[in-house]
Amino acid sequence: MRRFLLFAHTGRRAALSALRTVLQELTGRGVTPVLVGEQIDEICAQPADQLPEGLTDLLRDEHVHRVNAVHADEGTELAIVLGGDGTILRALELVRDADVPVHGVNLGHVGFLAESEAEDLATTVARLLDGDYAIEQRSALEITVRDRTDAVLTTGWALNEASLEKSDRRKMVYAAVEIDGRPVSSFGCDGVLLSTSTGSTAYAFSAGGPVIWPEVDAMMLVPLAAHALFARPLVLGRSSEIAVELTDDDRDQHAVLTLDGRRGIDLTAGMRVEARLSQRSVRLVRLTATPFADRLVEKFELPVEGWRGRGQRQR
Hints:
The chain is of the alpha+beta class. It folds into 2 domains: about 5-140 and about 280-300, 3-Layer(aba) Sandwich (Rossmann fold); about 155-275, Tumour Suppressor Smad4 (Sandwich). The protein is about 20% helix and about 35% strand. The chain is built from 8 helices and 20 strands. The chain has helices spanning about 15-30, 35-45, 55-60, 85-95, 120-130, 205, 290-300, 310-315; strands at about 5-10, 30-35, 65, 80, 100-105, 115, 135-140, 140-145, 150-160, 160-165, 175-180, 180-190, 190-195, 220-225, 235, 240-245, 255-260, 265-270, 270-275, 280-285. A 6-stranded parallel β-sheet has the order 3-2-1-4-5-6, sandwiched between helices. A 6-stranded antiparallel β-sheet has the order 9-8-19-16-11-12, with no helix packed on it. A hairpin with a 2-residue loop joins strand 11 and strand 12 (about 180-190). Helix 1 (about 15-30) crosses helix 5 (about 120-130). The longest helix is centred in the N-terminal third of the chain and has 16 residues, at about 15-30. It is globular and about 60 Å long. It starts with a strand and ends with a helix.
């Protein structure tokens, strides 16, 4: 029996309407929809008049398989995510270890991970079931946090970024940056952002970093409001490693490391964050081969009306 994991933004009616459609399409084709039990409970706890008609009955149908989050990837062929980039990042936490590919359905917000439109769900589901898609590999960060004795405190990963930021808005954090085992700079700042190419259009973009095409296998360091003459973004390749250490300039400093805006780790002076590109990629399902330049123009509504360049003439 084929199993597709469905993961939705439970607080958005558009996502719940899309969920109802996908449930109907999958069960109609004899495919088992799999949902995390917590999501089912969150949806069913909402007032009936605020839910799409028939959704509760579909979720309670015997053909829908309820699972614990830690088992969401077991036997799963593909995950369909209904929501924005944040919802996709949450779903990836469930399935990345099993290399389950993920397809995101766009529900109207600016985002670069989702692709399909909610209006074409029936066609989308049919193509996914028929295997009519391509897999796009995206690089992720592998993160290690060490204490001042160099002991490993925790490890993690991020598709978009790992952001090290001050905990106290009244203070700065003092950071030393090391690249490939060599000291590069140190400064007081609001924080330091470590980003993938995928994350270059997210937080890193807002912080003044460059846009990097997603197929570029690179990571980026962006200082946040650094008090330094040399505080420009740095772009590094796969062989490089970055380390950011909280120095003893302020023994009482506190910071927080956040992975993809969700998983937080408290840091104090002497702690060290190491980042490298992971050997395990994230797998995104693509139905169309839309050039990234076109997606950039669409998402940021860039002014290209009237463009008469050579590329336009060749279309």
